[in-house]
Amino acid sequence: MNTASVSLGASASSQSRFMQLALAAFLGIFVMGFVGFSHIDAVHNAAHDYRHSMGFPCH
Amino acid sequence: MTLFRNVVFIAAIAGLVAGVVLACMQAYATVPLILKAEVYEQAGGGHDHAAAPAATGTMAMSSAAPAPAEAMAPAEDEGWAPADGFERFGFSVVANIVTGIGFALVLVAVSEFAGGIGNWRQGLFWGLAGFAAFTLAPGLGLPPELPAMPAADLVQRQIWWWATVVATAAGLGLIAFRRSLPLAVLAVALIAAPHIVGAPQPDSFETAIPEGLHHQFVVAVTLTNLVFWLVLGAVVGVVRGRFTGTATSLRDSFA
After folding, report:
1. Mind listing the pLDDT tens digit of every residue in chain A (59 residues)?
2. At the N or C end, where does chain A have fewer CB atoms within 10 A?
3. Which one, of B249, B251, B242, B24, lies nearest residue B120 by Cα?
């Protein structure tokens, strides 16, 4: 264990760090958007109770 | 891509734990209320985007035979749906875990920009912020709705929902991480703006759902989400602490 391993990827440059974090955030938003907000009927029906229980706009 | 991989790893663990906790809470707190509301929904003539209830009334009077076919129509219109009972519950659990990981990805990525969540206590505060941005603020303009409740156009509500989440999160971030009075004023304006604009509302609020049932549902949704966010933040703090070894060294991780 060297000192670089104490943070999440301290060796990355600041630009690369920004890109990787932004990529992770967009992946998360995409997942939430697909399960919670997509207009595909089958996805809506499968996650119906979840959408209502999260207070997401539904129907 | 070590950073990306670590973020995904932490988010996967935290999302899994918090998603399972949320699914369990929903099974007891919110889903029974949704099922109750669906009884009113079916009594009132099916989904609001299903066949008009007036048509089924006249059909039933003229002859008995077509009535069952009319009653089946709403289900056919909406395509595949999981069977009631275990299958429906199973899909809810999957949705909870998958989106739990989605929420966790956003939480971990955003918190890394601000220095990272160092321990479970910091995680609780980050969880409170997530709860305020994703549940409290959108829920003020668009209270959690039960099936069969009147609502404005879906796309407009979804746009308002996302805009409110972004504005509230940005406002909270400015208050927490910028020590400047003008920026704090801007933060308050950002948090208030979506509610001044106003959420899209239906033309009429008339519904068969009793007000007591809806109120109970709003409380259940808000509380289950609060616990979900607190668990999510705390687990991120614990798992990230394991990753980085010591909490004190977190200061080095961001310039």
Report:
1. 333 334 676 667 888 889 999 999 999 999 999 999 999 999 999 999 999 999 999 87
2. N
3. B242
- In the stretch 22-41 of chain A, residues with CB closer than 8 A to chain B read 22-25, 27-32, 35-37, 39, 41
**Which chain A residues are Cβ-neighbours of B100 within 8 angstroms?**
none
Q: Are A59 and B147 in contact (CB under 8 A)?
A: yes
Q: Is B14 on the interface with A (CB under 8 A)?
A: no
Asked if the structure places residue A39 within a domain, the reply is yes
Lowest-confidence region among A2-6, B80-84, B207-211? A2-6
* Residue A46 lies inside a defined structural domain of this protein: yes
Distances (CA, A) of B210 to A28, B206, B214: 36, 10, 7
Amino acid at B246: T
A41: containing domain: 24-59
Whether B143 and B205 have beta carbons less than 8 Å apart is answered as no
List the structure tokens of B34: 């949704």
Are A52 and B147 an interchain contact pair (Cβ–Cβ within 8 Å)?
yes
Contact B95 A35 (CB under 8 A): yes
What CA–CA distances, in Å, run from A48 to A41, A52, B132, B140?
Answer: 10, 6, 23, 21
**Which among A20, A24, A54 has CB closest to B225?**
A54
**Average pLDDT score over residue span B151-155:** 91
| Residue range B117-131, pLDDT digits in tens | 989 999 999 999 999
Report the range out of A37-41, B176-180, B182-186 with the highest average pLDDT.
Answer: B182-186
Q: What angle do CA A27, A32, A36 make, to 5 degrees?
A: 155
Distance CA B185, CA B47 (A): 44
Q: What is the mean pLDDT of residues B98-111?
A: 96
- Number of structural domains (chain A) is 1
Each domain of chain B, given as residue ranges in start order, spans: 2-50+86-151+202-253
CA distance linking residue B127 with residue B105, whole number of Å = 13
